[in-house]
Amino acid sequence: MMNRRDKIREKVMARVRMDEGTGCWIWTGPTSGTEGRGAGYPRMSLAGQTVAVHIVMWTNEHGFIPGKKELDHVCRNRLCVRPHPEHLEMVTRKRNAIRREEAKRAMLCEEA
User: Fold this and answer.
1) Which of 15, 52, 92, 106 has an alpha carbon within 20 to 30 A of 58's alpha carbon?
2) At residue 5, what are phi and psi to the nearest 5 degrees?
3) What is the mean pLDDT of residues 23-32?
């Protein structure tokens, strides 16, 4: 019989496409939409609640995220749900904001 963690992992992985080039686990299910600061993040229903899939995967594999911490998509792909240090990392809000701005600047430099 499968335990709760295995059931959650199986439910998530049923909607994941592996990107061989980047190593990302790309969510193919519903997202949080296209507008606003939280747009584009993977969403699913779990125990009657809508939850962020990357957070579910992290907590399922690594445990609780303390209140002063949040997850940063190190791979810069919001649809990635892989709970691995090259893809998701638990950081402070400040660190996440700094990385976000660095990524924006890097994209602007690439476009120029």
Assistant:
1) 106
2) -60, -45
3) 97
Encoded tokens for 57: 């995967």
CB < 8 Å & 24+ apart, contacts of 37-44: 40/78, 40/79, 41/78, 41/79, 42/78, 42/79, 42/81, 44/11, 44/12, 44/15
For 14, the token pair is: 């049923």
Q: What is the pTM of this model?
A: 0.89
The pLDDT, as a whole number, for residue 2 is 84
Q: How far apart are CA 86 and CA 75, in angstroms?
A: 7
Residue 55 · residue 12 · CB < 8 Å: no
Q: Please, which pLDDT band fits residue 54 given cuts at 50, 70 and 90? A: very high
